Amino acid sequence: MRTHPRRPRETGRFGMLLAAALAMTLIPSVTEPLTTPARADTGVQPKVAHDADALTVSVPATGKTPGYTVDIATGELALTTERAGETVLSTAGGDTGGLRFRSGGQWQHATEVTDWAWKDGVLTLTADTTLDGASVTARLTPASDRYQLDWDVEGGSPDRLGLAYDLSSAGHWYGHGEAETPRGGPGVDQPWPLDAGEVEHGTFGPASYNMIDPFWYTSTATGLRVDTGDVMDVAINGGKDGLGRFTVESSHTYKATVFVESTPLEVYRDYIGLVGKPAKSDATYEQYAKPLWNSWAQFYTKVDQEKLLDYATDLHDNGLDGHTIQLDDKWESNYGNLTWDPKTFPDPKGMSKKIHDMGFDFGLWVTLWINLDSANYQHAVDNGYLLMDAKDTGKPCQVTWWNGQAGIIDLANPDARAWYVGNVKKLMSDYDIDGLKFDTRFFDEKCAPREGHQATDYQKLGTQLADEFDLQGAGIRVHWNETAHKAGFVTRQVDKGTGWESLRASATQNLAISTIGYPFVESDMIGGSGGQPAPSKNVLVRWAQSASLMPLMYSSTSPVDTYDTTTGQKVDYDQETVDLYRQAIETHKKLAPYIWDQVQSTLKTGDPIMRPLFFDFPKDKESYTVTDEWMLGPAVLAAPKLSAGATRTVHLPSGIWYDVNQGTVIHGPKTLKGYAAPLGVTPAFVNLEAKGAAKAIKALKRDDVSAASVLISPDAPATGSGTPFEVTTEATNWSTRAIRNVSAALDLPDGWTATAAGPTTAQSLKAGGTLTTTRAVTPAADAKWGGHDLTASVTYDRAQEASDTVRVETEPTPGSVTAAYRTTATTDDARYAQAGDQFAIRAGGQDLSGQDGETWSRVGTADVPSAAGTGDAGMVASAANIGYPGKNIEAVFSGFSVTS
Predict the structure, then answer these.
(1) Cα(473)–Cα(456) distance, integer angstroms
(2) With the C-alpha atoms ordered 511, 684, 597, 495, is the resulting torsion angle positive or negative?
(3) What is the pLDDT of residue 379?
(4) Gap between the Cα atoms of 380 and 472, Å rounded
């Protein structure tokens, strides 16, 4: 039964309150340099006020903190956090509820507050719930820049507790780390901000392979940290519902910290103040300056001694510098044996010597997972070296991974650890191996921790193990706890695909990882490593350029040649691919002194090296949704091209910016539309007012970049065959001098025409000038439906040229079917399109696909009369709308057969 409200100790009985929160996106108005250390609580005195419907906790501002209030609706327990009178965070309302729990498979939530007390700086609340016999007790402890929220459920036998928030109340959401999403994240998708996509992360926990932390922050400068060692179920805008659900799969006390600051950077610093900053960097200067070359994406498991040596030789002979050749998966006789496969690696010591003779270090991939068919497995079982099963601690835990079934070495067992380390060190000594890449996890939720240990301890144990070895810039994937934060490992991403979407995800994912406290980030292997077809030339080059403006470069796919793992066929790249990849490596090497300065700064402050623009420019509203730019330290704004094409839009926040490609000075804020980014150019800008600007300019300045660009708009035009549409080309001079004899042209598919409505030439264009030309473009009347390339080019100074290409989609346009074709329809709303020998039929309305899509229902039949006589072809066509009743669907027919 539900209890009746008791008389509070400091006030009368509450009436009902339905709290409404104003949803706003607030852009913080205070900024400080990134060298400011995290601040401590100054001992402010919070106050509690109340009326019939609500409680209000007020924390005054100080010289360094903005102050805030927490309004607690008591009729239906809800928390609304405000700063300067504006809402910056609100719990969810309605049937979802802010403080929620699961009992008997059904979700319940806190409702009316029945009692409260304010004592010793802690506000204790008791609330009814939607479940009879269950109540919630919550404790809110305010401090100057945060408040602690701990709560329990009494009665009802809950198995999960969670907080839910209205996402829009806090603007945009960030943090989390590598996010699992319906669109393929973290491999090919990483929403930025998180609320711009959907996050559905059901196994969000300390043993996850994903680099994650239970920390989120917002554009309104609030943050949430959940203090748990249990697995969570996290959904952010799941099903596009506008909610953030942060559920712990446990009945224990839910512990959360809510940060309230002036800027997102200060929220980040508050979090780092709790979990710790790196005490060191595990990578050396050379490992920051040069790429690591790992064999995985080049060969996957189809690697052998001859292939690896050819790979290293090609890199060496083409001047593709690097500090290490690292042999990844499939060198062992069996997984966990730590012995070479003699068939594929007949002379590993000789191979190691040849690699060293080329000037590379040599490294190996290793794991603590021992497959059941490995010779070492039974030895480990007999000696008690493996983790035991969580459900039956009398037998070894067996886990399934991408290479079979395995047991996991128990690092909490000193004997097991000593046995493993001894085997690894002997292997390294015997074959002159300089370092290791540790893969897989150190623990799995199917396993039981050793007596006296918790699951979270294995992150620390794995960290301590890895710290004994040179990780060669591959780092290690540990997270969640203080040990992982302080260890200072390089963080490599989860395997990515090989397309443009994966390249873009690699950039936003680094922003997510670095802003949850892991600052020494690198993308996944340049070009991707997720078992997809080999990357295209453009993707591979753009990925290398992007990585050149990150803290470290992690390489695998050779720009000389590689293998397509989906076909087994060799893929050869051209000389330009090699040259541009080499150029990216050289850029990164030149930038290394500046990057190393940022490493040293991070060791002092904990601030991320690669970070979103709004960490440095919190007043800049546009920067909160920029997905393809970042700050590399305080001076470098990286804006690499992460999609097809030769131009991009660049957003520059306030400040004085130096364009390293054109040598121009630009006063921000400013948006550069159609900025020239042909394949050989990586857009980057230096903040002339920032520390390190001179060193960054010295590294990045170029004198060999085209002065002009041309931009076509719209960027994805669509039209019908024979139907005119309009395009505009803008040729822009980005250099510091005038360019002459400027001519803009448009290259059309065969049979297409274009008529210019403005000038196509200019005698000269001054610095910053633009030649704009609008053209009416008409496709051929019989143009094939589908994609066609439209290329604009600009020539100047009689020899220089720049170009841009867009894809035009020609679509069927409803109209008449011409002789000698005829139509007969069995539905009143049938419409037809024809372009040459292409036909389309549109029919809308009813879903005729059958129940549950099991069978196709008959739409109808028709006798189509012959156009001329016996022997001519007739066409019978039908279309059924499977998924969208009430909407029109389109069926396109490209081939026909004749039936007498």
Answers:
(1) 25
(2) positive
(3) 95
(4) 28
Phi, psi of 332 (to 5 degrees): -80, 155
Distances from the Cα of 749 to the Cα of 450, 645, 743, 780, 834, angstroms: 69, 18, 20, 9, 19
pTM to 2 decimal places:
0.85
3-class DSSP state of 422: helix
- Amino acid (1-letter code) at residue 125: L
- Contact present, 845 and 825 (Cβ < 8 Å): no
User: HEC states along 254-268?
Assistant: EEEEEEECCCHHHHH
- DSSP-assigned letters across all residues of 733-789: E-SSS-EEEEEEEEE--TT-EEEESS--EEEEE-TT-EEEEEEEEE--TTPPSEEEE
The dihedral built from the CA positions of residue 639, 640, 642 and 646, taken in this order, carries a sign that is positive
| DSSP assignments along 296-322, one per residue | HHHHTT---HHHHHHHHHHHHHTT---
Q: Using CA atoms, how far apart are residues 894 and 879, in angstroms rounded to an integer?
A: 14
Contact 782, 811 (CB under 8 A): no
Q: What DSSP string describes 648-692?
A: EEEEEEEEEEEETTT--EEEEEEEEEEEE--TT---EEEETTSTT
- Asked if omega into 669 is within 30° of 0 (cis), the reply is yes
Instruction: State the burial class of residue 132 (Cβ atoms within 10 Å of its Cβ: 0-12, 13-18, 19+).
Output: exposed
Give 151's Cβ-side CA count (13 Å radius). 29
3-state secondary structure 229-257: CCCEEEEECHHHCCEEEEEECCCCCEEEE
Instruction: Give dist(CA 343, CA 8) in Å, integer.
Output: 79
For residue 107, the cross-strand partners are: 102
Question: Is pLDDT above 90 for 37?
Answer: no
Residues 102-124 have a mean pLDDT of 96
pLDDT by residue (tens digit) across 53-68? 899 999 999 999 999 9
Task: For residue 624, give the 3-state DSSP assignment.
Answer: helix
Question: CA–CA separation, 265 vs 267, rounded Å?
Answer: 5
CA distance 668 to 656: 6
Residue 104's identity, in one-letter code, is: G
Describe the crossing of helices 500-514 and 537-548 by its angle, rounded to 10 degrees: 20
Q: How far apart are CA 476 and CA 365, in angstroms?
A: 12
Q: Residue 117: beta bridge partners?
A: 124
| Structure tokens belonging to residue 196 | 């711009």
| Biggest alpha carbon–alpha carbon distance for the chain | 98
Helix H or strand E segment including 504: helix 500-514
- Strand, helix or coil for residue 287: helix
Report the chain's C-alpha Rg in angstroms.
Answer: 31
Pull the structure tokens for residue 776. 């009416």
CA distances from 44 to 30, 36, 186 (A): 20, 21, 42
pLDDT band, residue 833 (cuts 50/70/90): confident
